[in-house]
Amino acid sequence: MTWVPGAQGSPYGVHNLPYGVFRQGDRPARIGVRIGDLLLDLDAAEAAGLVLAGGALRAPTLNPFLALGRPQWSAVRSRITHLLTDAGHRAAVEPLLLPLAEVELVMPFEVGDYVDFYSSEHHATNVGRIFRPDDEPLLPNWRHLPIGYHGRAGTVVVSDTPVIRPSGQRATPDGPVFGPSTRLDIEAEVGFVVGVPSAPGAPVPVDRFADHVFGIVLVNDWSARDLQAWEYRPLGPFLAKSFATSVSPWVVPLDALADAWVPAPEQNPPVLPYLRDVPHLGLDLRLEVDWNGTVVSRPPFAGMYWTAAQQLAHLTVNGASVRTGDLYASGTISGPDRSETGSFLELTWGGAEPVGLDAGVKRTFLEDGDTVTISATAPGPDGITVGLGEVRGTIVPAGAPPR
Ligand SMILES: O=C(O)/C=C/C(=O)CC(=O)CC(=O)O
Ligand SMILES: [Ca+2]
Ligand SMILES: [Mg+2]
User: Fold this and answer.
1) Which of 98, 119, 130, 351 could lock onto 306 through a cystine, CB 3.0 to 4.6 A?
2) How far apart are CA 265 and CA 336, in angstroms?
3) Do residues 15 and 384 make contact, with C-beta atoms less than 8 angstroms apart?
4) Do 393 and 372 meet the contact criterion of CB atoms below 8 Å apart?
5) Residue 123 Cα: closest atom of ligand 1
6) Which helix (H) or strand (E) holds 372?
7) Is the peptide bond preceding residue 336 cis, with omega within 30 degrees of 0?
8) Which domains does the chain have, with CATH numbers?
9) Does the beta carbon of 331 lie inside 6 Å of ligand 1?
10) Which whole number is the average pLDDT over 96-106?
11) How far apart are CA 100 and CA 102, in angstroms?
């Protein structure tokens, strides 16, 4: 039971406690933890000796804290829970609470490397059918390894950063032309934030996932389908996905998701030993995609074919190391039903079947001025949900063409 006004029973109660970085006026960015519709200034809390993390909470990004590792993450979480539930601390802590409305949330961590997977069987099958109608939708490797590619860390931006429509080459019957993308899309995903690095040559086994991964964010991997369709063979996505990837401002710790683990779909054929995770668990996260105020889709994360532990094991199995701040995203989350798809490519079946928004507006792909908000919840203790916040972006017109 927390003493913080309005926080008891909220999706952001003491069972959640996501971390973020905020600015207030022109003061430098500092770390906070969300409680209800308030934020506890952890920079001030550590300065006052209320919580101790060796100074890691007095940084302008979460990276030093992420590097500490699970025993320290748990100790800090227990201490914050104690501060927010023991009325004896109220007098000291309450002055360090700030209304969220008074702060600006900024990028919570410095992204090391960014990897994007392709782990939803429904999404991969749909995209295969749309992009390659004459071929088998899933290539022979798909059920043997989590397919992924290395993305662009430098263009990962926090929610509410405007998304500039990308320009590039697209194919026409008369050959390629250059211009602003005409098929700009979203990809609703979940991102995993690496805290503890691994050493080169030392793969992270599936059962060490929780030693390395601190928590999760929501991801919108903006994608230009016209650029993608022309450029992606044989090396995969390049400029079609490198211009902006938005993440939610709150990093929800795995500790807050203890009630959300569910059996992941059975894998057939059986996977190679290094990918065998026992128990084979996914997270029951329920996403919602809102397009200009209309909810158009509800992607279910629980059905993802490859788990986050398998993805990390695969990402490092060749000896590649991970660093603090590395981000790897699940891949677009789509369920079996059209109303559960995580991209507008699927929702409108390649643009052939427009979707109706409120006020009689119809859409296939994104137009300038459109806003997409992806939010999510997870089951928490005692029937309370865990809020995962939201990732939002508004499309602004393409910049000037190159000279
Ligand atoms: O050509 C394909 O099959 C890939 C299409 C994608 O857009 C996949 C992607 O970005 C990974 C994902 O988010 O699932
Ligand atoms: Ca993606
Ligand atoms: Mg991207």
Assistant:
1) 119
2) 13
3) yes
4) yes
5) 14
6) strand 371-379
7) no
8) 19-106 (2.30.30.230), 114-396 (3.90.850.10)
9) yes
10) 98
11) 5
